[in-house]
Amino acid sequence: MSNTTFAPLKLFITGPTYIRDDVKEAAKLPEFGHRDSENDLRMVPIFKHLRALAGAGDKFHPALLLGSGSTSMEASVRSLVAEDETILNVSVGAFGDMYYNIAASNGKKAENLKFDYGQPIDMNVLEDKLKSLKPNVVSFTHNETSTGVVHDIKAVCALIRQYGAMPLVDGVSIFGGAELDLENSGAAIYCTATQKALALSAGFGVAFISEEAEEKAKTVTNKGHHHDLVKHMDKARKHQTLTTPNCTLINQMYFQLERIVNEEGIENRFARHIEMRGMVEKWVEGIDGFDMFVPEGYRSPTLSTVVCPEGVTVAQLKQGVKEALREEGYLMDPGYGKLNAAMEAEGSRLIFRVGHMGDITPDMLGEYLGKLEVELKKL
Can you list the positions of beta strands (E) in 115-223? Predict the structure, then answer.
């Protein structure tokens, strides 16, 4: 056996996220067959709790897709954009761009409407684009992981619907950390994953599929196999996955969702995330030279982005602050790499991110911010 030693770090990045010890222990629950009745003992509660977290009502059915959030996003594009249709992607950051790149790489007629990093969607600009392009489908990001911008998805979906298009929503880094009310959102499909605010390991993309989306998927050709939402729904109705799942992760997901819903409570979980956002805002106000990156009213409850003083470099954040905090037992997020590289090249102030999603607690966050402040003041 290797003598390699792995550091036990507390993760304050934006995913993967901190996983509780009892969730890790749940990996030791018995193995099972994914087509056996033992599967139902786990998957029936999992689907029930996912619906509750989403506020899905009867309009949306969850499906687990092997992979990650981008797997469910790609399935939404391949299954819901026909060959003769146009998809407009609306992007406020790197993961908004990913939705466009997924569409383009699948040969879809795609166009990307980009807004400045750190700024939300300008609804007037979006409306003008909807009028001129007349897309059939529009994708956008509920919570942009690279910048910490969160949108009112009901308002964005309503505008998209006003112009006859179908909204596809990426909610990878917020699901399980904020109230959603998916049933009344106006979305056709909502894509998320296990490794962010659900505080589990990566392994599943989660797609909340509406009846509208399923019916359209039946008419779209060249969906492939694992990106075919119709096939996923055939199995999801039986509380199963299309192909052999990570059964260890299902055991952990069963345990974690039971704990979230029946012990912590959904409303308490959402309130905790809002409290932690407020903690970061107050903390930033107390440090000279630092500012919040995102305008008030559009700040994510699951991650925060902070602007550094002029003159701070990428190297200082990565090799200085990050590595100093590693010695303290923390993994710090020095900012989204491509964004900070571009900002440094143009002489703009850099940003770093604070992940406060999943099972991070206010006490844990407060301790981390104290250590982080010590290192930032050395810059």
Answer: 137-141, 143-144, 149-150, 166-170, 189-193, 203-210
Q: For residue range 272-323, list pLDDT tens digits in order.
A: 999 999 999 999 999 999 999 999 999 999 999 999 999 999 999 999 999 9
Q: What is the CATH number of the domain that holds 364?
A: 3.90.1150.10
Roughly what angle, to the nearest 10 degrees, separates helices 69-80 and 94-105?
A: 50
Cα–Cα distances (Å) from 155 to 159, 184, 200, in that order, read 6, 11, 30
Does the predicted model carry a pTM greater than 0.85?
yes
Number of domains forming the structure of the chain? 2
Residue 1 reports pLDDT greater than 80:
no
Q: How far apart are the first and last CA of the chain?
A: 41
Output the six-digit token pair for 188: 């056709």
- Rounded to 10 deg, the angle between the 362-376 and 266-285 helix axes is 20
Question: Phi first, then psi: what are they for 82, rounded to 5°?
Answer: -75, 165
For the stretch 55-99, pLDDT in tens is 999 999 999 999 999 999 999 999 999 999 999 999 999 999 999
Q: Residues 230-248: pLDDT tens digits? A: 999 999 999 999 999 999 9
CA distance 79 to 242: 15
Residues 129 and 211 in one domain: yes
Distance (Å, whole) CA 330 – CA 297: 29
- For residues 88 and 99, give the distance between their C-alpha atoms in angstroms, rounded to a whole number: 10
Cis peptide before 16 (omega within 30 of 0): yes
- Give the side-chain half-sphere CA count within 13 A for 179: 8
Same domain assignment for residues 254 and 274: no
8 A C-beta contact, residue 117 and residue 169? no
Q: Are residues 134 and 41 in the same domain?
A: yes
The whole domain housing 29 covers 23-263
Query: From CA 79, how far away is CA 112, in angstroms rounded?
Result: 19
